[in-house]
Amino acid sequence: MDWYVVVPGAIALVFAVGGVAALRTGWVFPWLRARVYRTGLFGRGQLLMAAAFAFQALAPFSDERAIRSGLGIASVLALVAGLVLTVLGQRPRHER
User: Fold this and answer.
1) CA distances, 29 to each of 5, 10, 14, 70, 73 (Å)
2) Distance, CA of 72 to CA of 35 (rounded, Å)
3) Taken in order 61, 9, 91, 28, is the CA torsion positive or negative?
4) Kindly report the CA angle at 22 between 17 and 25, in degrees rounded to 5?
5) What are phi and psi of 91, to 5 degrees?
6) How far apart are the C-alpha atoms of 22 and 27, rounded to whole Å?
7) Nearest to residue 46, comparing CAs of 70, 71, 72, 26?
């Protein structure tokens, strides 16, 4: 198996486990606990990033160039959207 398939797949697995744990129990990785204020939003962002890395891992298995390009574009858009959600999950709420 090639590294460009294994590495995104492993990263997708880590993000998926972290996202499910954040959504179900509110648990986040120990090095992120001081920064994450909204675990639900953070977990959704992690799941979206896991999907983006899964798209990257699946793209080399496609024979058609258009499908590979579509998966690449979907991967980049999902990665940016997941990053936005995780950053918003790390910002404290503004309560008045």
Assistant:
1) 25, 16, 11, 32, 29
2) 30
3) positive
4) 110
5) -95, 135
6) 5
7) 26
Query: What whole-number distance in Å separates Cα of residue 18 and Cα of residue 9?
Result: 14
Q: pLDDT of 32-64, one tens digit each?
A: 888 999 999 999 999 999 999 998 888 888 888
Q: Indicate the burial class of 12 (C-beta count within 10 angstroms; 0-12, 13-18, 19 or more).
A: buried
First and final C-alpha spacing in the chain: 54
What's the pLDDT score for residue 68?
87
- Is residue 72 within 8 A of residue 78, CB to CB? The reply is no
Model pTM?
A: 0.87
Residue 65 · residue 42 · CB < 8 Å: no
Could you tell me the sign of the dihedral formed by the alpha carbons of 36, 46, 2, 68, in that order? negative
